[in-house]
User: Fold these one by one.
Assistant:
Number 1:
Amino acid sequence: MRDNKLLFMGISYMLVAVFLMVCLDVVAKILLKNYHVMQVTFLRSGISLLIIGGAGYLARGKDSFKTQYWKWHILRTVLMAISSITIFVALSLIPLVNCMVIVFISPIIVTALSGPFLGEVVGIWRWSAVLIGFVGILLILQPTAGFIDPGTIYAFIAVVTYALFSLTSRKLANKETTYNLSFYMFIGPTLVGGVGSSMSWVTPTPEAWILFIVCGVLGGLGFIFFNLAYQKAEASLLASFEYTGLIWASIAGYYLFAETIDANIWLGASIIIIGGLIIVFRESGRLKSIEN
């Protein structure tokens, strides 16, 4: 029963994390209309850094920041900086649809590398769930032509670095605290974004400051739940649940940006849900068999 509880907790944490990250993307999209990519990166990451650092200090004092895994944290924050910046650059160069298709290749990369990198057993059921989810993504997005251009290269860099970042989260999940996993990752984007925005800084309006703060809160909470998920379940198991972000993105697009939701979106969303349910029922049944 304990393993089943951890499984459902991990999936629940991942679903919450994905929802929060979609909310973050919606707010960031609004801000990027008037503010430079580097400024959005700097304020989003800096505010998240302050919130998580403050929470960690209140909870455990200076001991909250002690770690034995400096090399891993340096790698993670570099990956986070590259992924954050390149995905924004990609969005400015290629259609959103094309970019999103490339971004959601990440779960496949995580599933493929979780075997050699993490030693996880990735069977046919997990692969099936990930690939079924990707079919759902293609039905929703219906990617257009023109994939081979500089924007696509930036998007692929973002995807690869994000996938590697996800794997490091699982690698350290049972060794490092959630505070440290969530805190140190924002140092790189904050520093790079701060330097990059120094030449293009635009003083935010009071309304924009509110959105930046919301952005930072969402980003901080999102990655806290993201790291909690990897402490409870394997990376290859959680990968397919990242596709649920397209469901929330479609709803946000419809209500906030006047984007239409056609039959392909509902069909694709249903397929994504089926892929996730395959994982839930398969893993739940497998764990019950082990317990018996």
Number 2:
Amino acid sequence: ALHLTEDAAPHLHQQAVQLLQAIRDEYDARQAVCESMMYARLLELLARIGREWDFGQADARAHTLPIHREKMLMACDYIRAHCLEAPSLETVAGYVGFSKFHFDRLFKQFVGMNYCKYLNHERIARAEALLIDPDITITQAAMQCGFSSSTAFSRAFRAVKHCSPTEYRRMQVG
């Protein structure tokens, strides 16, 4: 399985994000031959991945983890279920029976990003749904998603979504 992350291949990740946004824009515009344009951009994305992704590295990573795969999936499920509580690395490592150092190394290998970044991605995904509701303030969304302040939330949100929570809300709600 290909897991293209910003950490693993920053340049390729950026290109993929741009092409996926172009596909979405084409879909939203619904202009003549939009399906052909979307298909062309998808083919371009697949071609770029084929040329630039180091499949040897991905294969090596996949072969080093089979014995830990189930535990890493358990950890991801646990994080997803408890992300609003912001569980510590130690808590999740203990849950799956590893020391925090061993877990941290295996988790990054398995997911393609470190624990804190993954936790923030999960929390931001929850925040996206809240930001669509205009009755919920950005500070309320931040607190409901386990962030200690709206500043910390805005910083994490921008790192994941490449826009501020306010900009995201404007794009989604209109």
Number 3:
Amino acid sequence: TYTPSIVPATPTAEPAKTVDVQGATQTGKPVFTEGDSRVPMNDTVPATFEDGSTTKTVEGVGTYTVAADGTVTFVPEKSFVGTAPAVTVVREDMNGTKASATYTPTVTPVTPTAAPTTSTDIQGATQTGKPEFTEGDSRVPMNDDVPATFDDGSTTKTVDGVGTYTVAADGTVTFVPEPSFTGTAPAVTVVREDKNGTKASATYTPSVTPITVTPTDKVS
């Protein structure tokens, strides 16, 4: 008699994780290993997710796409931060035996910052000031296509007895004081956002120094 015995050749897979900043596209690739060198992974059969698809969109999180070789590309929503749900990648070997592993991306927040500014000029003079806005990461700059506003969404504010503030698209504030006003005017808050839509705010405070008229005696 001749009795052959066949031992299984079971491929294995190791999960993958990646971390990058808010808004950045990430890629990760689980590692698949054949169960026997004579039964390699089948590169002619494209990798899929566990449901057989090659694209998944999670609302409020982002979109995952798996390439034929098992590489997953994750495009997060601009506002998403944290650890995204894992997706399961499936490949098979030359025997058709499948193996699966997860890919999990994590998104770290990018927070722009802003520094307040002040200005001082004489009574009746128009003043300008511009808070300094700095991106939280060089890959996520401030969004020059979205105009700056005040904290209530307006671009003009008038304070009775004080003056009028107007903010330009780049965050520069112009203050036109009332002719009679002197002293430190109320601060206004300027708001801008970065390319992810994350907002930062800082104040602008103008001060007006009085002009004193000094009479001179005249003798004739």
Number 4:
Amino acid sequence: MRTKQKKQYTIIDLFAGAGGLSEGFIQAGFYPIAHVEMDKDACSTLKTRCCYHYLYAHGQLSVYHQYLKGEINQETLYGSVPTDIINSVINAEISDSTIDSIFQQIKKLAQNKKIDFIIGGPPCQAYSLLGRHKKDMDNDPRTLLYLQYGKFLKEFSPRGFVFENVPGLLSSKKGEHFKNLQMYFRELGYNVYFKMLNASNYGVIQDRNRLIIVGWKQDEDFGYPDIQTTELTATINDLLYDLPNLKAGEVQQISCYSHSTNQYLLESGIRLSDDTFVTQNITRSLNSNDANIYEYAIKLWNENGVRVKYTDLPAEYKTQKNEKSFLDRFKVVDGNGKSHTIVAHLSKDGHYYIHPSLDCCRSISVREAARIQSFPDNFYFEGSRSAMYKQIGNAVPPLMAKAIAESIKTQLV
């Protein structure tokens, strides 16, 4: 739930993406000095979110709402907050050639404030199981981005850090990458702890496993934080029930809720009590053959609890020759349970994320995907539809991030 609380501890968010991790930390009371991200659209999303937090804190949310409704443009929104708020988003790739410049920008923003924590996780595709099938990991520079992360630890000497990544980091190159990462951080003066966490244990209606590494200065070691779990009783149907029932191809940039809120949406902070409209109900169009497959898959799942395999489809629906791999390429989100993991491939197509309602017969919308990732409804994504899906799929669920941040905050003195 959104609260006005004094922001005492500072963070730098590296490889920030759309800001899911920092959103959770901000909700827990941390203050972001800077976000560093190479993707231009994600940086625009971060800037817009920074405007939201500033305007909320200063009782000027009407300006933000004007932007969401299209009554003012982005330039006017960004001009409504201090320049440092916009400049806190640094659009740059973190590399040997850029890192000194990034350091200088952060120091200017910090104005001699101490950096308490560094958070973030380098791009994880190189460590994913799918990524290993695509390219030689030894030649993928993304596998060594933890070295750049460490340079920020050395430069700013925070009390600790949170490093998020996919489970595959533990086993990539037979565990060598993770072993080297631990050794490197210890050499920099940090004790390293790690656990595999599932987002569904922290209020997120999604089965999403992530490796969360926590490091502490060796002279101030609190160990792994005791992160409070939440018993999840709500389902995807509870999560989506008040959103407009759109058909494939429908786009509603602004729309009214179809129902009043419910307990889960209020307690999670996804829909606030004063939210009067919702944005970015943007859906994909669908050709007639895929529509037939979606209908077949939805019926099979909802009526029999069976996941359709491509080989089981009626012959007239099959258009691809590959019947040996990716047989689950059409997958319905479980309306009566939790979603399977949202990933960035959602930006390519929606076949793996079919809406559970036969009345919709489409893949999930931008706003529905954002909710499954636990982003609040007032979180606005910039860029094309594909860019929005990519940002959402790559993000750390804010509710999970908030649970991590709150547990860390109790350890700090």
